[in-house]
Amino acid sequence: MTSDTNKTTALVWFRRDLRVYDHPALTEACRNHKQVMGVYLHTPTQWDRHDVGNNHRWFLLEHLRDLRQSLDKLNIPLVVISRKLFSDSAEALVKLALKHDVSHLYLNGEWEVNELERDSACKAALEKEGIGFHKSNDQTIMLPGTITTNDGHYYKVFTPFRKAFIKAAQGFDFDPLPRPSRRKDNITISERDQGSIPKVKPDLKSEWTIGEAHARHALKAFVQKEIFDYKRYRDFPALDNTSRLSPYLAVGALSLRECFYEALRANDYSFEGVSEGAACWVSELIWREFYKHLMVGFPKVCKHRAFNADYSKIPWRSASKDFAAWCEGRTGYPLVDAAMKQLVQEGWMHNRLRMVVAMFLTKHLLIDWREGERFFARHLVDLDFSANNGGWQWSASTGADAAPYFRIFNPVRQSERFDPDGEFIRHYLPELASLSNKSIHAPSPMEATDLGYPQVITDHSFAVDRAKQTFRTAKEQQQYATEQAV
Predict the structure, then answer these.
(1) Is-catalytic flag, 58?
(2) Which of 208, 281, 326, 392 is catalytic?
(3) Is 281 a catalytic residue?
(4) What is the mean pLDDT of residues 444-458?
(5) Residue 2: what pLDDT?
(6) Average confidence (pLDDT) over 269-279
(7) pLDDT score of 3 more than 60
(8) 348 is catalytic
(9) pLDDT at 486 over 70
(10) Catalytic residue among 137, 316, 423, 437
């Protein structure tokens, strides 16, 4: 970069990195330029195409409001521009850059197919006008493509990826970047030209605290206490010994690097050993990393396709009534129904239960995993494409490192094991509160009728046999077709 950049204006393009602390692009822009401004492109029609629901939109836009306040304190204006689609981004950025004599654009990379195409078009348009384009890495610790097998391919299985990641991370600087200092003499933009931040009403009933400051405080509180019992209690939804930080990671109000930094500090700077709880949570962070790398290495997952071709032609059932029962928490299986109530009410679901309900939809009901993935996307506050897609394909046995198709959770046993006293079920299904700790996991037909609770929509044994046969046949047919094509 030339030595006269301090005399020029930098534009920082914020996306899913709505914070000022540990922000690589913002830090670099402030380091190299005296005058810095920010921009956010609001593309609601693109969100529609990506099935982004009101809960995530609300959470993101509220954090955009919080970001504007934080940038104001740094004397950095934030311009909000509304356009319909990603394809409108290049024109909007060039117009803004030329209007304010911007010489360089800074941004943190995003890795989905549509986002990569958008950024490529923006880079070409800006560079055509002589405007520098500088992309930093933020959503992952290691740049996708740097963690590969010996023959240079992306990992398809988590355990070897985790080992390779830990090896690559030795000596890595996890120290978060500080918040930039306040600009003494910066560009001035009128409030009208900065643009307004749209208001979205969420569908959820419960409240989530907004703000980067809260996210960072919640992280530090978690690693000071709950993280040490994380492995022991993380699967019990009534105890809720999880961090609940995923929404803040999804909108970038909290950085992945800071999560690693705090967790490793709590674990004596070790990825393994010391505290089993801390090491387990670090491993979950690596899962997030794995799904991002997987998405880049195998972009077909961004195109509604099964990762594992063996299961690309499963004859999924068209069962609208069963799907509606699943969505509305009326399957007759209390743990499944309580979990779906939690999702609709809070825009969030406990991780163990995400696996339970996903496996129920795809195995017990034989309904396409993409329908469930879409329903989750429309309700989750913490919507993150790679994590949502990865989790659904794992549960449906169509993904990388997935559960074998013959591994099918028994929702009653899952309930008895992870909600033994029925505390979670009673909270979300109060109509079952009077049942005993034994009956609440599987009410008898008479109990269900008396309490106005639905009867089970499918028998567990029948559903398991049907799913195994369906998946086995689909795999054999696909493998035969592949052999014949060679």
Answers:
(1) no
(2) 392
(3) no
(4) 98
(5) 46
(6) 90
(7) no
(8) no
(9) no
(10) 316
